[in-house]
Design brief:
single chain; alpha/beta; 4-stranded mixed sheet; 4 strands; about 20% strand
């Protein structure tokens, strides 16, 4: 079965430790991780932001007063998935350290997670939906060579 087609825009805002984040996110790997989570063709923009931008976006669109790891702005799921994924670099780095995983592994998880959200998956609707989404993430990440992110 052919992988879905992906039109990817990868953007980096001004970051204090930009080289570290750019090294963890080579474009070909970002595309690979997202494509493995896709069920259909997609046009996705991935934007890596600092804490200030992440906080502002989370506050404006989710009414949460903090920067979160990933925000998914989904515009269309059919016939083509169209979405923006915004990842907050300092939050991702802190969580990777706290969870004793590599920065790249945590980015891969958050990109898979955001891509599933862009296709309608939702872990906040019920415990069953959360378990189903988590199982799908584990399966995708295992296929990409990453350990279970929840262990």
């Amino acid at each position: 079965m052919a992988m879905p087609a992906l039109s990817l825009s990868l953007q980096f805002s001004t970051l204090t430790d930009a080289a570290t984040h750019r090294a963890a996110l080579p474009r070909h790997q970002v595309a690979r991780w997202i494509r493995h989570a896709l069920e259909r063709d997609a046009e996705i923009t991935v934007r890596i932001v600092d804490t200030e931008e992440g906080h502002q976006l989370n506050h404006q669109f989710r009414h949460k007063d903090y920067a979160t790891n990933v925000l998914t702005f989904d515009y269309s799921t059919e016939p083509v998935v169209m979405a923006d994924l915004v990842l907050c670099a300092p939050v991702i780095a802190r969580e990777a350290q706290e969870q004793h995983k590599s920065l790249q592994a945590h980015y891969a998880h958050m990109l898979v997670h955001g891509t599933l959200h862009a296709q309608g998956w939702d872990h906040e609707t019920s415990e069953a939906d959360a378990q189903e989404m988590e199982a799908r993430e584990i399966q995708i990440l295992a296929g990409l060579g990453f350990d279970n992110p929840y262990e």
